[in-house]
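Students often ask why we bother predicting the structure of a whole assembly rather than each chain alone. The short answer is interfaces. A chain on its own may look different once its partners are present, and contacts between molecules only exist in the joint model. In this exercise we take three input lines together and write out one structure for the complete complex. Read the inputs first and try to guess which parts will touch.
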Amino acid sequence: MDETDPGGAEQLALVRDAVRKQRPKRTPAAAEQLPIARVAVDLPLAHLDRPFDYLVTQEQDESARPGCRVRVRFAGQLLDGLLLDRVETSDHAGRLGRLERVVSSEVVLRPDIARLCRTIADRYAGTFADVARLAVPPRHAREEKTERDLPTTGSLPIVDGTPWESHDGTARLLDPLASGASPRACVPTLPGADWPTLLAEAVLATLHSGRGAVVCLPDVRDVDRLDAALATVLGGPDRHVVLTAALGPQARYRAFLALARGDVAVAIGNRAAAFAPVHDVGLVAVWDDGDDLHAEPRAPYPHAREILLTRALEADAAVLLASPARSVEAQALVESGWCADIAADSDRRRRAGPRIVVAGASPSAPGRDPAGRGARLPHEAQTVLRESAPAGPVLVSVPRSGYRPALACRTCHAPARCATCQGPLAQPESAAAPACRWCGTVAADWVCAECGGTDLRAPVIGERRTAEEIGRAATGVPVRTSSGDRVLDRIDDRPQVIVATPGAEPVADGGYAAALILDASLVLTRADLRTGEEAVRRWSHVVALVRSAADGGRVVLVGSPSAPPVQALVRSDPIGFAARELAERRSARLPPAVRLATVTGPPDEVAPLPAESWPDPSEVLGPVPTDDDDVRLVIRVPRRLGSALSSTLQRIQSQRSARKAPVLRIRIDPYELD
DNA sequence: ATGACCAATTGA
DNA sequence: CAATTGGTCATG
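Now the answer. The structure tokens for the assembled complex follow.
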């Protein structure tokens, strides 16, 4: 550079000036108090599942609150993050980057919920980011700008507690809840019980202690019923919010914010509500915890019951598991002494329910022989249908929807397959021709691939075809169906027959005069771990909708009288059944008696896993092929080693993700094992 | 994931 | 000898 050139020196000075002006922006003054932000960065990688520290600038000091959303630069790219905490010093040796941006100062992940996410991630061998995604709904900026709703004022209604009297729950649950204690109870609801009011009263009692409540229910219809009951019991619709994915992003975020801001203290919803940011939660409740809808289908597949039980432990809240049946998991909690069993004695149970009888049907050939003893609708069932119909609605429960949902060869009984794609054939409507359920091709001139037969039979009858059959038998009474996407919610007291699939039964205003449970044998032939438990659960829901025997209520179950699930229903003993199931799980070493994990992935990836250092003692089974080209490994350990098993699996995922190996699917205590 | 770095392998 | 590929490491 020529020193005699004044212009050049001037330019250089200008450049230096510009550089100096930029400097303070790159390393701005850090906040005076708690200048370090611990951030959970939204990364899909298991080996980076830990907080990272960033500097909070003075300008960000106000808005960078623990629990808020931030943007950070991580490994060169801009990523979303959740600010977990503000601290004075960092353990990190290197230079810290600054928070790129505080997205909003709205607190969406309080420290207590963050801790819950961490516990659940660890339990299910997943990552914090995956669980936090379940706990924090997507942001809707417009909702954040809307004015804060004023918290509902005015005094709470008095706890009436009427439905709890008959459940022996006033002194054991309602009173402790109202006085600020945290009882834990498993409650089998009585047939005919007004369960939405029962749950709403427990919520009201909790509110009286100055605490909030979270209730998870399996499907939207159950949520709607509790929603209505809460509006009545709490003296208005504003003391609780509904939180389901079905709400749509804006309404969901509005409900979420009302809870997060402390404007509302009660959250109800499906499994998505388990992480609801209710302040000072005093009660967590689950309706019908045995319903598989409570199991989250996204990784790491947590179960709403387990999330809420964990939350109750961490927040010292009360627990209420209510259901007309009893899950094996709930029974295990009762037998371990962790949960009180608030059950009416079996005598009172029987008196509350309808008279239940079993009508025999041949389990080998349901649907055949329409007149004889093996008939799908045997004589006893037809008699009850005819006698009860004038007294009110009759519910007919069938396990399958559709018309003829499965077809087989009349000669050799082989399942009928599509000539084009080998898919299963079904007859979708009364007038329709058989067609493939996979590709839709109409099977015009079907020929059995096994024996050359040309006639089809239906080993399984759906709800539509059943309605058609019953329409012929019960003349003069309207027959309607309720299933799948055409669900009836409520029906009135007039004589009518409702053919419904499990979970789609409408509530009858004055209770059903009678119910027929068809194809019980068909349901019980499935060789699944949960077959019996699931059958008792579904049938118990049907029984709960029927009038008591004193009011003429009757139930006919068509199936084998000797099958244990049928016995449990007839004797009104879902608890005894759950206890026996649990004993069987113990001797078969299956959950919940043990902790079990499945690892699924490509054969080459799963093959080296049996040599891993699993907790001791443990059992490693497989790998065995699954439906697709993957294989599955099963590892089981005693319950006390459950967390050791999870951390081993977490370590395996971390090591794999660090060397860019494909992630394996890991499930802890899966709902079913195929 | 993304990028940096290093070492081994491959090709002209 | 350069170019390419593959493994390891760190990311605040």
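Check your guess against this: Residues 162-348 of chain A form a domain with the Rossmann fold fold (CATH 3.40.50.300).
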